[in-house]
Amino acid sequence: MAANFVVDKDALGRYQWHLRAANGNIIARSEQAYASREAAHKAIESVRTNAPDAAIVDGNVDYVATEKAIAKAHATAVENQRKLKQLYKKRFPNGVMISGNGKPPQKK
């Protein structure tokens, strides 16, 4: 069973809708009550029409912008890591790192 919108009458005789997921859980509901069933149906159609590609905004954080910033930071970190590897190869062409006293580590 797919998700569906359900329209019910409340205790005051007004209409409200809620969206049920395939598993039966309510995942959205109308903020307000409507005087008629037709008005509730119009509200459902408005949700369907106006929100198919709606962005997610949480606490004034736009997830699309945040994801782009994270991707940019990741790309910068990867580039910095590549540069460090190149620098290491230039400074230590044989793969030997000098210890803190300026001498190669002693083999035991």
Structure explained in plain terms:
With 108 residues, the protein is an alpha+beta fold. The chain folds into 2 domains: 51 residues, YegP-like (Double Stranded RNA Binding Domain, 2-Layer Sandwich); 54 residues, no CATH class. Helices cover 40% and strands 19% of the residues. The strands form 2 sheets. The chain has a 3-stranded antiparallel beta sheet, covered by helices on one side. β2 and β3 form a beta hairpin. The radius of gyration is 30 Å and the shape is rod-shaped. The model has no long low-confidence stretch (mean pLDDT 83).
What descriptive keywords fit this protein?
alpha+beta, Double Stranded RNA Binding Domain, 108 residues, 2 domains, 2 helices, three-stranded antiparallel sheet, rod-shaped, single chain, 5 strands
Task: Break the fold down into its secondary structure elements and pairings.
Layout: E1 4-9, E2 15-20, E3 26-29, H1 37-50, E4 57-58, E5 61-62, H2 63-91
Antiparallel strand pairs: 1-2, 2-3, 4-5
Assign a percent range to the helix content. 25-40%
Structural class: alpha+beta
- The Rg value, from CA coordinates, equals 30 Å
The number of helical segments is: 2
Task: Give me a quick take on this structure.
Helices cover 40% and strands 19% of the residues. It has 108 residues and is of the alpha+beta class.
